[in-house]
Amino acid sequence: MRILALPAFKNRRENPYNASLYDALGKFNGVKVAEFTNPRLFLQRWDILHIHWPDAPLHRPSAFGATVFTALLIARLLWAKLLGARIVWTVHNLRSHHAAYPRVEKWLWKMFVPLVDSCIHLSDAGRELALDSFPQLTRASHSVVPHGHYRECYPNESDRVKSRRALGIDPAAPVIGFVGQIKTYKNVSGLIAAFIEAAHPEAVLLIAGRPADAAIEAQLCAAAQNAAAQNHPRILFHFGLIPDERMHLYLNACDLAVFPYRDILNSGSAILALSFNRPALVPARGAMAELREIAGPDWVYTYEGTLTGPILSDALAHATAPSHPVECALSALGWDTIASTTLNAYCRAWGVARRTGYPDAAHSLASHPAIQKAQ
What we know:
The protein is α/β, with parallel strands linked by helices. It has helices at 17-25, 38-43, 63-82, 102-112, 124-133, 160-167, 188-198, 214-229, 247-252, 268-275, 288-295, 309-319, 335-350, 369-374, and strands at residues 2-6, 32-35, 48-51, 86-91, 118-121, 141-144, 175-179, 204-209, 235-239, 256-258, 280-283, 300-303. The chain folds into 2 domains: 2-148 and 333-374, Rossmann fold, CATH 3.40.50.2000; 160-319, Rossmann fold, CATH 3.40.50.2000.
């Protein structure tokens, strides 16, 4: 089976999800995965074209550029189908977080959705929401394949004390953290407001990641200045792209990771925190309830509505309780399992059963219900 993926490996530094998936798929006999390029698309034949973020062409500085790159994407997908490839879409999001060009985006989904032969959803909730949003997808095949963990993706050479020493944080202070790219929809300003409301006398709020633009950075700095004026100076910023070799410092320094997204379907950031055995506080939306079922209520805390100071305080108290377990069990999200169920989804896109030429990887399928549903 020949798979052309968009993206496959080129975004490994920004998000190891894709590379981890395709590295694991590459362990199967007879499976070839390649990065999407125009020469490969136009000069070679592929069984599967696997796309993850079809809204990527919308992330342009002008409506004209977004329109041109959207049209190019649709043309490429049409060419792949003309040569016999099946289009498989992993549904990470149901709409663009960019949301700058609504007319272009509406046209994108109108053209893209009918081309999809098979959908891979990261949760049952995601599958239902996708079918509600795009009824045309009922004609496609559907599989549920959870998001894999990040346990082997980053070095992890420090502990809580060493990480805090490196970052200049009091080893005894309760630390609430946000780690990842900082974008408007992630509502980091709302986290700052909830932290101020909580008024915890010793707590520290650590925000680490690269702001999407200068306006977001200025907004957060203004919020921090306001906090200092209210005698809340314990907000630490580490702006910039986090190198892989420093990711463990920020996550190990936290007692609780918080992701107060306004719009959420899935969250790789929450899974990243769990991969470092850090409890995560997330909105009760999208796939978060299923992530809570997989990781357990000691590791995923959910809330309804808007994040508030009391919600934040309660989650921090739970995360720092002496009885809190040390390690989060994520065997159900192992990449060999994820790759195996993804390969089943590819076969489903062709309407054929799993063939003997694609034996299971080294580890057998997990017995977790979320994995069984994907089979």
